[in-house]
Amino acid sequence: MTKKYVFSVQSLSQALRLDTFLSGLEYFNSRTQVQNLIKKGQISVNGKIEKGSYPVKNDDEIEIVLSEELNVIIQPENIPLDVVWEDDDIAVVNKPKQMLTHPTLKETSSTLVNALLYRYGYDGLSDLNGVLRPGIVHRLDRNTSGLLMVAKNNKAHEYLAEQIKTKSAKRKYLAIVHGNFDDDFGTVNMPIGRNPSKPEKMTVIDIGKPSVTHWKVIEQFSGYSFLELELETGRTHQIRVHMSFIKHPIVNDSLYNKLPFKVKTTEQVLQSYKLKFAPLKNNDIIELEIKPDTDIEKVLKYLRSINK
Question: Which of 19, 60, 89, 141 is catalytic?
């Protein structure tokens, strides 16, 4: 028994070796693992088996065939879940930091999906996003905490996905960034794609996908700002990439920010704190908001103490 994973390459500004490109993605543990699969003929490009040195280009279709012993089996795990709101079709959870939203071929346990499977079961979550992402309509980075919508069935999944697509669902974040702003609010409208030299990172790039982030200043300190941000699109690492691009990187974001900060936190000081969406079975509008997480509170306390 085998399973196939197929995806189309997008947003590369230059060709990359096949083994280098794939090893930078979340599916694999190492370049050696990728090379072994290539040698076994389990990875093809545009229907043809290629060597690891094959230069991957935009619009290439890569197919990965995993044999039964390599298939990922996602087990339910009794992990505490902070369910902020739910009905028969949708749940909204407050995902903690240091937790992946869903398993990958690298990590198959201790994720939000493992916890969701324990609470709702395999039949209690949508399956439109495949075996690794039951119930997952959108995601948060491992070290971004906060509100995340979960679909309990496929009809709810499609309904929520359409709201995200049409921008009727609203997702707002809190972040603390380096630097100060002359304006009270603004928008970053720059395309985002995978970094051609570092596939584990995203970057602003001409051939990337359209990406729009709105920001608003809540409070300013000497050299730092507390922001509310709203996503109009939902690209991987979008807020982190956009804020770094405009020279206001998020505090303690080790992937996109090399500037030092005196207070240690659990990686980037970023939280999904507000959601607005429509449930499936009535005309109500659900608006949810949670308090700033402990990292945000810790940093704000420090900044306010040195800015008295």
Answer: 141
